[in-house]
Specification:
The protein is mainly alpha-helical and about 80 residues long. It has one domain. The chain has three helices and two strands. Helix 1 packs antiparallel against helix 2.
Length: about 80
């Protein structure tokens, strides 16, 4: 997947979430059940696309030393500081 589309998928997921919340705010008898089902399926699909994309692009290479790092990984110094507090 192209990196440029990442933000588009995130925005689409937010719009779908907003639509789902709007439907859930209605009384149960007034909800459009078919619309709610399709939006939930669409949100699930978007989440899986975003998750797979983030998994594929979770490693970063340092331009200076060529060491690879995983995004979100804590260094040993960070964990020792948090344990001491």
């Amino acid at each position: 997947m192209n990196h440029a589309y990442d933000a588009v998928f995130e925005q689409k997921a937010e719009k779908v979430k907003k639509s789902i919340r709007k439907q859930l705010a209605l009384p149960k008898k007034e909800r459009d059940k078919n619309l709610l089902k399709t939006r939930l399926k669409e949100l699930k699909r978007l989440k899986s696309v975003l998750k797979s994309y983030k998994k594929e692009h979770s490693e970063v290479t340092c331009p200076h030393c060529n060491q690879t790092f995983e995004l979100g990984e804590k260094s040993k110094e960070d964990t020792t500081i948090s344990q001491n507090e």
